Amino acid sequence: MNQAWSRLGIHFLLAVVAACICIGVAAQDAAWLKQNRWSDPERYEGLHDQLNARREYDVLGFRAYTSVASAELPTDKPLMLSIQYCRPKKIPLVVPGSDTAFIEVQQLSSQVNYLMKASQSRASESDFGWKSFSWPTKDVINRHGINPNYLGVVIHWGQDNEYAEDIQPAVLTGGPTPPPHGPGRIQRYVLTLRVWPSLRSLSYEIRSNGGQSKICYYEDDQSSCAQMKPKEQTSIESGSLVNLNLDMSNMPDGEASVHIDGNYNNSDGKLTANFRFMHESTCR
């Protein structure tokens, strides 16, 4: 009986601590948004130092590319940065009722914690195709010496929630006027996660438009998709950035998904995550 009450007390204490963290983070969020609001364009941008209630992973970026080669941004302090993303005709949502695109940009690495959240309004059902958002670098990025190549972009559909499953890939470029018809034929994506538990293995399964799935085993950030399980154990330390390369060049357009499986180091626990997005190579 004492052990049962002891376990109950521990669970109650953890629940109270979690509630206090959530309340504190929410209050800090409201204060940060108020202090870091900018116009032309409307956005929230600044350095972020709030406590973040950690979970198994953080989604830091979902970038789209037109070729196998990575595209780097200019390092000579571009005056503007631009985000392009495809708003498809149909957006299948886990949480129906809103197809608003919530754009968030944050820093992948460095001691400076940069954050930009774009102010968005809900689009009409007929408003589809390539969309863009551009903002100046002079206010925060250049002032604090932030390298644009160390920025991650995440777009959530329907809800402003960093752990929502519905996401959309983005193209990040330097310059105020991205091409109105899009960057070209999209062939691959990179999903960037920060994993908090140390892992001994990581794999991910890609599927598009109900077609045959493709299973990839993570080896390192340079490997596009290892289809054979590594002979040696992969060691991913706690707090590491992991770039998952999603080669979609031979996969059909349509609703796509990524299912992630990881095995904790020195335990039987597992990391699992699921994401859905629309693979539109030409955004018709």
Strand-helix topology:
Blueprint: H1 2-35, E1 37-38, E2 43-47, E3 57-65, E4 80-87, E5 101-107, E6 114-118, E7 129-136, E8 151-157, E9 167-168, E10 171-174, E11 188-195, E12 199-208, E13 214-217, E14 240-247, E15 254-264, E16 270-279
Antiparallel strand pairs: 1-2, 2-6, 3-11, 4-7, 4-10, 5-6, 5-8, 8-9, 11-14, 12-13, 12-15, 15-16
Sequence of secondary-structure elements: HEEEEEEEEEEEEEEEE
Oligomer: single chain
The computed structural class is mainly beta
Q: What does the overall shape look like?
A: globular
β content, as a range? 35-45%
State the end-to-end distance.
Answer: 64 Å
Largest sheet: 6 strands, antiparallel
The total count of helices amounts to 1
Q: Trace the largest sheet across and list its strands.
A: 1-2-6-5-8-9
Mean pLDDT: 82
Helix content: 10-25%
Number of strands: 16
- Counted up, domains total 2
Low-pLDDT windows of residues: 1-27
The Rg value, from CA coordinates, equals 20 Å
